[in-house]
Specification:
Elements (H helix, E strand, L loop, with lengths): L11 H14 L6 E4 L6 H13 L9 E3 L6 H9 L4 E3 L2 H5 L3 E5 L15 E4 L11 E4 L6 H12 L5 H16 L7 H10 L5 H8 L7 H10 L7 E8 L3 H11 L7 E8 L2 E8 L7 H9 L4 E4 L3 E7 H8 L4 H18 L6
Parallel strand pairs: 1-2, 1-4, 2-3, 4-5, 5-6, 7-8
Antiparallel strand pairs: 8-9, 9-11, 10-11
The protein binds manganese (II) ion.
The site of manganese (II) ion has 6 residues, from loops.
Length: about 350
């Protein structure tokens, strides 16, 4: 008698049947496009990889598409490390494929951007069943990646290290990080994927890469870094991503004697300002950011961390120069006055 996994109630026979169904509708010479949501997330990307593998396809015969590119730094690191290629979608390009598959998303999401869909894998609730050739939507599942994992487990297909790593990350980012109830499908998938996945690579995905060019920005900033009245205030100048402003702010807070940090960076047409406050009293970074920049931009946050985004033209109108050193000097003056006045601490 075959052993049943001890803590699970998964219906393998149905999944096995679904896999036969899936394979039967994709002809050997069919070109298949796998489409993800705009700005694809790890659940979608890993599910796309899984679907391609289940169909025994490669990137030439079964490419991935999205109408909008991946933007989150962690997700871009995943794309880079796992060498995931996603082509920009267009109605014309997709129309040239024999089959269109969707993962982690369903046809209504695309409105009229899409001619049709033939295969749908998803776990999002709230959609009416569509009239596609093949559909597997399991709204009780924590991730589409755990549905895909079940197809491999049920059919005893081999899962590569790269795919296991992707699926595990997809499942984790979709279900565990949000502290939802951990569902059976997620537990089941983790049990199967963990021994295969590359845990080193998972750690790397969690720590987004910094562009090489940022080293020079950082070296200039660190050379002139000084603490005045418990405050570090610096302007990085032009940055490629706003998480760099955030990382420098966190770093500066570690210096001896520093209780306040204000780090600015020019991102496109905005000045992004990250504020940190280490104070144990009633000092509030969020209140300080609002007091200083609420009138010319969006500003807010918590006790210890806050952020303001000020359009450079509004900064220019109120503060004058938008030259990098002038911004830095003014940033220091503004925060020094704000800290001294204590108007941010509710007194
Ligand atoms: Mn998902």
């Amino acid at each position: 008698m075959a052993a049943t996994p001890p803590f699970l109630h998964m219906d393998y026979s149905e999944t096995k049947q679904k896999l036969r169904e899936l394979r039967s509708i994709v002809g050997e010479g069919d070109r298949v496009a796998i489409l993800m949501q705009d700005d694809p997330d790890p659940d979608a990307m890993s599910s796309a990889m899984a679907l391609r593998a289940l169909l025994g396809r490669n990137r030439q015969t079964t490419p991935f598409f999205s109408f909008k590119p991946v933007t989150r730094p962690e997700n871009r690191t995943m794309v880079h490390l796992l060498e995931i290629e996603i082509e920009p979608a267009s109605v014309e390009t997709l129309a040239g494929f024999d089959k269109i598959a969707m993962v982690d998303v369903q046809p209504p999401y695309f409105d009229n951007r899409l001619p049709r869909a033939d295969i749908v894998f998803d776990h999002h609730p709230g959609y009416a069943p569509s009239t596609v050739l093949f559909e597997d939507v399991r709204t009780k599942y924590g991730a589409t990646a755990s549905i895909m994992t079940e197809y491999f487990v049920a059919s005893e297909e081999r899962i590569s290290e790269r795919l296991a790593t992707a699926l595990l990350y997809g499942i984790r980012s979709d279900s565990l990080a949000l502290s939802r109830r951990v569902t059976d499908d997620v537990l089941q998938a983790i049990v199967h994927l963990y021994p295969i996945a590359n845990l080193n690579m998972l750690r790397q995905i969690d720590r987004p890469e910094i562009p090489q060019s940022f080293a020079r920005v950082l070296s200039r900033v660190l050379a002139r870094l000084e603490t005045t009245d418990r405050l570090v205030a610096v302007n990085l100048g032009k940055v490629e991503r706003d998480d760099m402003v955030v990382q420098v702010a966190d770093f500066c807070l570690q210096f001896e004697g520093v209780e306040w940090v204000a780090v600015a960076g020019k991102l496109g047409r905005d000045l992004v300002i990250a504020v940190r406050c280490y104070g144990t009293g009633r000092d509030s970074a969020g209140e300080a950011a609002k007091n200083l920049f609420g009138d010319i931009g969006s500003a807010g946050g918590h006790h210890n961390m806050a952020k303001a985004v000020v359009p450079l033209r509004k900064w220019a109108r109120r503060e004058g120069s938008i030259r990098d050193r002038a911004i830095e000097a003014r940033l220091r003056e503004l925060f020094t006055a704000e800290i001294a006045a204590g108007s941010h601490n509710g007194n």
